Description:
Elements: H1 12-31, H2 38-72, E1 80-81, H3 83-86, E2 96-97, H4 99-118, H5 128-143, H6 148-172, H7 175-187, H8 190-202, H9 223-243, E3 244-246, H10 252-271, H11 275-291, H12 296-312, H13 314-321, H14 331-346, H15 359-367, H16 379-412, E4 418-422, E5 425-429, H17 431-434, H18 436-448, H19 458-475
Amino acid sequence: METNQKSNKSSVAYAYLLIIAALSFSYILILGNIAENFKLILGVFLFLILLVISFYKAAGVFLGLIFFLPVLIGLDKYQTNVGSFFQAFFPIEDLYINPFSLACIFLVFLGGVEIWKRGLKIIKVPLFFILSIVVLISLVSFFQSDFKIYGIAFELYFISGFAAYFLGYLFLGTKNGYLKTIFTIILSSIIPATVGIIQLATGSYFFEADSTLGRISGTLPHSNTFGSFLFVVLTVAMFAFFGTNIKKMRSSHIVLARILPFLILVPLLISTYSRTAWVGFAVSLAILAMMKPIFRPFIAYFGALAISLMFIIEKTRERILGVFDRYMFDSLYGRFDIWGMAIFEARKKIMTGYGIGSFEEVIRNVQGKETGNVYPHNDAIRFLLEGGILGLFGFFLYMSGALFYAAKSFLHYPKKIEKLVFGKYDLEVDFRFLGAIPLALFGIMVLISMVEAPSMDFIYQIFAWTMLGSWLGMSQEYIKKPN
């Protein structure tokens, strides 16, 4: 297929972009006020290096970014003010960027280049028109906002998920590409899991201001986001485990490598004490049990064993039973309080809202204090406040589109075991079974969006959209007509 070709090794697009970027950065370096900003100069050179590598292997750069995103998102201490970088062109004084922002900028940049290279052929990509409308709505919300300084990062992160979708489709929309996507996401847990184990071993826990519960956060900024990340990785790993088989698999190290993610990541997931992540993982297990009846006794036994152990251990038992507690400052009470404020304020700007990324600032202004919980905990309410009716429509539009294509491609993909070579291994793969991964990720996203805000869980978003893009790319021949 034309839209699924690998990035051309001799592509002149990246060569021209590299020349233009190098000249622009040199001009700003000479005339701008950045010569003494080492972190900013380093970021510039990293950007140029990524462009050089993209000339040869843009798909490899994309997979590398996916692998390192869970690490980059926790490096806020390395943020720097890039306002001086733009002063040669725009009168901006304070504009901060961190490594994760830089990675997302490159994702959007890479996606824009690949879309531009394909011209009108890009309209054949599923969800193209839907995502274009949603991006336009988000930009309208951003430009009319009074909170642009807060919203620019949220706008970037929001669009980067869609960019990852197109890159997944264009770069990884083959059977081998889909397997690369799966295993890159699984391998992306190596560094965060290592840090999580160190935190457990040294007692370097994450503590919230209103709690004495010590939780691990890995390389992620919060224990809840670390739990969400682990749930996504475990979901992908579970489907990969049951959906692939290595022919003549006798080596003990291969067997260990297949079960090792579960032995390490499940205890880490429990240690995050993220109830939403626990529910997400439980739903993934339920989906797996429905699709693979032969494993239902196995899943039921170990699931019951895990729940029993969690009720025996005091901290996990209290965390579970805490859902049913009712007092003035419990999590559900706080959610209802914030939702009521948000709906009340949303009525004042019902059509276009207050602008993307404005939720926390609007709620903080209503509360009249700088501290306290201002997190949305509900995607529909978040988009209603930030984007008004238009924003809420955009949210339902892109989620419905993602679920529709994920379900349609999954149902139309033929039931069969396919043989192919992946790396140095001969695999037997049930691609239809693996095709349930994006459907599960987006389905669970809808479920938990009633009590959380997965649209602000950027790793979850980028991983899910990448998986969907890669899957639709490899299964596109079955989307329009059933087999």
